[in-house]
Amino acid sequence: MSSLHLSARVLLLAGGLIVLDGSSISPALAQSQPTATTPASGEAEGYLDEPGVITKAIDLAVRSMPGGDGGTKNGLFIDASTRVSGAGWVSGGPGYRHWLFDDEAVIEASGTYSWRGYKTAQARFELPQLFRSRFGLGTQYRWQDLTQVSYFGEGADSLQDARSEYRLRSHNWSTYAIVRPTRWLALQGRAGMLGRPWLSAPAGHFNRGFPSVMETFPNDVALMRDEQPGFLHADVSLLADTRDQRNHPVHGGVYRASWATYRDRDDGLFSFRRFEAEAAQFVPLAGDRIVLALHGWSVLTGTDAGHVVPFYFTPSLGGSNTLRSFNSYRFHDRHMAVVNAEARLAIFTHLDGALFVDAGNVAARARDLNLNKTSYGVGVRLHTNRATFARIDVAHGREGWRAVVRLNDPLRLSRLSMRAALLPFVP
After folding, report:
1. Which end of the chain has fewer CB atoms < 10 Å from its terminal CB, N or C?
2. For 349-378, what is each residue's pLDDT tens digit?
3. Minimal CA–CA distance to 95: which of 22, 171, 183?
């Protein structure tokens, strides 16, 4: 559920090798990058001298990043981009990519398998550089089997002890187009079809022993149906992005607004609309050695009278990208809002320390939204001058302490480049 708005990324540590792979820039446009021992212009040096082991590891990462020696070439790659919250510590799998027509088009297919038995597969065809890169067009098919998705019930007052899990199998086809009138502004449209989601009891490896959602919430409207409906979906979004780098920004900001509609293909009971607004701003201080990162995200849903949003589509909060001291998917309801603030200090050139605060909540009515759920903590980020590729956060809130280890950016900005409509809603 990152790096550089590309569709694949992986951190592979084996015999000292680090590989970061991506897919949305053609080889013809790739440019070599400086090594960690010769930092890029504007890259902040840390307050302390960097240990050689970190510098050597980063050098290997830079040479393997998109835009370097191996990030965009044809052939096999390792896909970790489809990792979903709750999948477990490790998730990845093989992929194959091939550029066509003098790098004007790309075809790609990949599959992943996770620690807890989550499985995904995707295939896409894309024309990313039409009309001198002003226009892009593509299509993607995605299948997934998520074995242990958590659900605590609806509302800000849901109980931690009510935690249950369900298995969700679904498939989704989408066609998308993007218009780029300038380098920093993009208008994207997407339409597609979600097949009938299949809900069942949790399964997979390392089962945590929580009861099935069907047993804990038997009176939920969606769970009272023998089968879930399929959906037609469409959305449009406007994105303004002035960040200097997409996965290790120091300057600039990103602002997004989107509107989406989901149409229940059976009786219309679960048809709904969704509006999202998101903003992030990065403010350099002390010559870029200290960066203040500010982020806000709100999701509102609407329905016609008598219609409902099924629980697997309701906005949710909690986990490594929103409220870090709470479990993933901890709170669900019709509307949600969250803000995050981080102060990042360059301890070494390629390792930052971070202090952060998260605040947010969910509500049945938009006017009742507040920021009463909070968490705070400390963390570290390992990065090149272009990309954050590993982070550790330790957070505390009213439900205790929680440690987070992830291979993506801490503010979940990777969602900005999603091609397929995700199910369930992933915070």
Report:
1. N
2. 999 999 999 999 999 999 999 999 999 999
3. 22
